């Protein structure tokens, strides 16, 4: 015998009921079964609300009950063929007439006792099971309606009656002995020895099914609902949550305590005592095996699931004299229990100086009052402080029997939380080692859950969640690079990079599971693209609240840079080739670095200078090791070097500038290069990295942009105007050639003074040998004194820049690895 129980969502309408009948049909082919039904979806709520309205003199119950009747009649018409409808319709009509009288009585006497309420509530299941039994008969089943009041005996604690198991078990066994047909049973309802109707409390239908399964020593109990079993975590917060194939009874109870509301612990008891396996299955996806709950805890993953509870507050009871107060804990818990406050978690350090309790936020007021009243004298004497409350908290708990005697679970848990910058307020672990709970800030809940989910479930891989703004030359090259390396990174580096948000200046798009990078769309091509709005992009990123997130800015935009503070505040790392933030005010530059440190995230910008060449990192290392920079001489512009070295081959100036742009060396607007601005920003950033308080105004900049080109409204117009200056530049080159020299656009920084401009250099000068997009940086330091440290190589272009950005992204991925 198998017991199947279908909840309200499974019998909400004609379509879902058809699915239920299919499942019953398939099960019946293989096994002997009995079926327990809840009321049709939402019916119990209407009944209870109407009773309360009637009691308060509100007549809206009349219409609500009429609607309910219509809904039941409609279902009869849909499920039962016309020639069989009359008995069913009569049954329904009689029940509703009775209900009407009942409500009227409640309305008149303005009273609804728990006993009446149980009777009212019983109509939901009595109607659904009767109608469904008749419908099944019409489908050819030997179905028989069974009103559970006949077989489940309880005391008269109405609303949450206690089952008299010896009597109930006998009744059930006798009944099934005498009835061979397919029993269609009302869930939730029962009766007292005197024949009064009672109900079994929350999730009562599950309980009904478990009671029957236990009495009949059923082979299994199947709870059919609208989710595919118990998931590893709340899927609304953890998108990668998945069905747990198997749980022990204890694990299921722990998990359902916080969060996983698929099954209530008390309802499992009867089945658990008899060792009957429970399956949690999805009516809407019957092929999914769902979750099996039984007595086993086979070796496997350290934990089975992660549950959570939000809207928690912590109460700290402490005080200088607390050690002298006798019986502190008994009095704390006694006062809370008298005030009906449920304690969720307790933690006390072995110093016994502080007792810390987690309770529901809604109960803070009464709890604080109760404790302070209890310790009135001690507080007045200063032995105990007033109760200290911390609000806006949540609890996360990892659950699993394999943690028992198996070191590592708490290590992994707190490492994951710590590395994601989630502060832990309190910790509790029972000696059963089945559950480790941590209290965190409510704002960190989703991040904490995801961090834990990744740490415990997503193989051993770390996921890095990327949000990319700027999908131009560099942005696109970056996406390609990540796509090409994705598999290798997963396999060899155990790092999984996913891009969840992309945007350019016009459109933005998001993907919860991460875009398919091999076919990653441009923002405007993405299925759910919307008009770009930077503030919304950031808000969406914040609300997705992934652990291990990085914001990649591949624009040259000041507007984007202006959001960095907010991004770092949200504990999201930043990687960027955009120089705007670091070359703005010195105060902002310093603040960003400080903020990143404070929030425990990385702000990386190696490609601000010389693209992928290791310039910033090298300089930072020099500084960390205590070196001091005396002088920097450099060619810092790939495009300017390309332009002036190519000019030597005889092409007109405007042509080579155009070529530099086509090769992807220039800024989005090449005037940023020609004007020396781009180089100025770079030398400024190098100076600041060398711990010099440098301002943009301190830099002497020689611009190469002719006056009339400056005012050109577009890049195209600029190119048109630039043609008119080809001869001037040819002349410049001639003059240099005559002296046997070369033109190079240089930057120098010495004694706090920076200078940027075109220089005519002897052919033997190291910079004269530079070709194409080459950059070259000479650091003269206290240690590299007689011979400078030299870094040289291509310093612009899509690939070498994207590679630098990529390396920074990986650095963050490795940093956040647990
Ligand atoms: N090209 C190189 O060799 C190189 C080297 C190092 C650093 N960089 C830096 O890389 C950055 C990007 O350069 P690129 O060549 O890819 O430029 P690009 O013009 O090809 O792309 C810029 C992207 O940014 C987007 N964008 C601009 N403003 C935006 C805004 N406010 N909001 C959202 N999106 C916006 C554009 O729509 C475009 O998708 C620049 O900061 C540049 O200095 C480039
Ligand atoms: N436009 C820059 C590349 C970005 O830093 C250059 O030409 O060097
Ligand atoms: Na670099």
From TrEMBL:
Residue ranges occupied by any ACT domain in the UniProt entry: 398-471
UniProt entry keywords in alphabetical sequence: Amino-acid biosynthesis, ATP-binding, Kinase, Lysine biosynthesis, Metal-binding, Methionine biosynthesis, Multifunctional enzyme, NAD, NADP, Nucleotide-binding, Oxidoreductase, Sodium, Threonine biosynthesis, Transferase
One Pfam family here: AA_kinase
Keyword Cell cycle: no
Catalytic activity: L-homoserine + NAD(+) = L-aspartate 4-semialdehyde + NADH + H(+); L-homoserine + NADP(+) = L-aspartate 4-semialdehyde + NADPH + H(+); L-aspartate + ATP = 4-phospho-L-aspartate + ADP
Gene3D superfamilies cross-referenced by the UniProt entry: Acetylglutamate kinase-like, Aspartokinase, catalytic domain, Dihydrodipicolinate Reductase, domain 2, NAD(P)-binding Rossmann-like Domain, VC0802-like
InterPro entries to which the protein is assigned, alphabetical: AceGlu_kinase-like_sf, ACT-like_dom_sf, ACT_Aspartokinase, ACT_dom, AK-HD, AK-HSDH_N, Asp/Glu/Uridylate_kinase, Asp/hSer_DH_NAD-bd
Co-factor(s): a metal cation
TM helices/strands, residue ranges: none
SUPFAM superfamilies, alphabetized: ACT-like (SSF55021), Carbamate kinase-like (SSF53633), Glyceraldehyde-3-phosphate dehydrogenase-like, C-terminal domain (SSF55347), NAD(P)-binding Rossmann-fold domains (SSF51735)
A molecular function (GO) term: NADP binding
GO BP, one annotated term: threonine biosynthetic process
Homology family: In the C-terminal section; belongs to the homoserine dehydrogenase family.
Quaternary structure, from the entry: Homotetramer.
Protein name, per record: Aspartate kinase
Protein species of origin: Belliella pelovolcani
């Amino acid at each position: 015998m198998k017991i199947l129980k279908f909840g309200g969502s499974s019998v909400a309408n004609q379509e879902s009921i058809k699915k239920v009948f299919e499942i019953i049909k398939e099960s019946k082919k293989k096994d002997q079964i009995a079926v327990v039904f809840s009321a049709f979806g939402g019916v119990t709520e209407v009944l209870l609300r109407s009773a309360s309205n009637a009691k308060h003199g509100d007549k809206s119950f009349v219409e609500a009950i009429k609607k309910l009747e219509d809904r039941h009649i409609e279902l009869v018409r849909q499920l039962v063929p016309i020639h069989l409808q009359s008995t069913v319709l009569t049954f329904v009509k009689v029940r509703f007439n009775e209900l009407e009288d009942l409500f009227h009585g409640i309305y008149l006497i303005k009273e609804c006792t728990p006993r009446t309420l149980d009777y009212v509530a019983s109509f939901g299941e009595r109607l659904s099971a009767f109608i469904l039994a008749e419908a099944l008969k019409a489908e050819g089943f030997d179905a028989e309606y069974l009103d559970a009041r006949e077989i489940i005996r309880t005391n008269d604690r109405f609303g949450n009656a206690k089952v008299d198991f010896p009597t109930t078990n006998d009744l059930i066994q006798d009944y099934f002995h005498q009835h061979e047909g397919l029993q269609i049973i009302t869930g939730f309802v029962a009766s007292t020895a005197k024949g009064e109707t009672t109900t079994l409390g929350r999730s009562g239908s599950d309980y009904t099914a478990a009671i029957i399964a236990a009495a009949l020593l059923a082979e299994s109990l199947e709870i059919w609902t609208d989710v595919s079993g118990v998931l590893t975590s709340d899927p609304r917060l953890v998108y990668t949550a998945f069905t747990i194939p198997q749980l022990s009874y204890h694990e299921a109870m722990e998990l359902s305590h916080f969060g996983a509301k698929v099954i209530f612990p008390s309802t499992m008891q009867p089945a658990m005592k008899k060792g009957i396996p429970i399956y949690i299955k999805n009516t809407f996806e019957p092929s999914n095996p769902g979750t099996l709950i039984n007595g086993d805890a086979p070796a496997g993953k350290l934990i089975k699931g992660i549950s959570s509870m939000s809207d928690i507050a912590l109460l700290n009871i402490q005080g200088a004299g607390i050690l002298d107060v006798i019986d502190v804990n008994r009095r704390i818990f006694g006062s809370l229990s008298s005030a009906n406050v449920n304690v969720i978690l307790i933690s006390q350090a072995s110093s016994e100086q502080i007792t810390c309790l987690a309770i529901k936020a809604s109960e803070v007021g009464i709890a604080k009052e109760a404790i302070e009243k209890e310790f009135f004298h001690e507080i007045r004497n200063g032995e105990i402080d007033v109760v200290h409350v911390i609000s806006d908290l949540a609890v996360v708990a990892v659950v699993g029997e394999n943690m028992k005697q198996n070191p590592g679970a708490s290590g992994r848990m707190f490492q994951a939380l710590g590395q994601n910058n989630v502060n832990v307020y309190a910790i509790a672990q029972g000696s059963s080692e089945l559950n480790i709970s941590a209290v965190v800030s409510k704002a960190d809940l989703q991040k904490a859950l995801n961090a834990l989910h990744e740490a415990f479930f997503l193989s051993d891989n770390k996921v890095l969640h990327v949000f990319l703004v700027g999908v131009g030359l560099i942005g696109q090259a970056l996406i390609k690079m990540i796509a090409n390396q994705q598999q290798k990174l997963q396999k060899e580096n155990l790092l999984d990079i996913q891009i969840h948000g992309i945007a350019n200046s016009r459109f933005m798009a998001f993907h919860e599971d991460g875009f398919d990078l091999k076919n990653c769309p441009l923002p405007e091509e993405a299925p759910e693209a919307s008009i770009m709005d930077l503030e919304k992009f950031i808000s969406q990123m914040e609300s997705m609240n992934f652990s291990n997130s990085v914001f990649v800015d591949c624009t040259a935009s000041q507007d984007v840079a202006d959001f960095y503070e907010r991004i770092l505040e949200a504990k999201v790392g930043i990687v960027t080739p955009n120089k705007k933030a670091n070359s703005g005010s010195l105060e902002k530059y310093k603040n960003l670095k400080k903020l990143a440190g404070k929030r425990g995230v990385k702000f990386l910008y190696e490609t601000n200078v010389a693209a992928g060449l290791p310039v910033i990192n090298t300089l930072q290392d020099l500084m960390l090791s205590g070196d001091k920079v005396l002088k920097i001489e450099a060619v810092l512009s790939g495009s300017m070097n390309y332009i002036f070295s190519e000019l030597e081959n005889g092409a007109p100036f405007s042509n080579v500038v155009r070529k530099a742009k086509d090769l992807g060396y220039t800024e989005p607007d090449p005037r940023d290069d020609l004007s020396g601005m781009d180089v100025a920003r770079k030398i400024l950033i190098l100076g600041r990295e060398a711990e010099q308080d440098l301002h943009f105004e301190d830099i002497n900049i020689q611009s190469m942009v002719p006056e009339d080109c400056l005012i050109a409204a577009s890049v195209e117009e600029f190119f048109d105007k630039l043609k008119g200056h080809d001869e001037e530049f040819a002349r410049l080159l001639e003059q240099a050639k005559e002296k046997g020299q070369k033109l190079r656009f240089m930057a120098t920084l010495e004694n706090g003074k920076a200078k940027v401009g075109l220089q005519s250099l002897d052919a033997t000068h190291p910079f004269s040998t530079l070709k194409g997009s080459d950059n070259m940086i000479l650091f003269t330091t206290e240690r590299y004194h007689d011979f400078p440290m030299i870094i040289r190589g291509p310093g612009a272009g899509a690939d070498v820049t994207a590679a630098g950005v990529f390396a920074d992204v990986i650095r963050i991925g490795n940093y956040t690895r647990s």
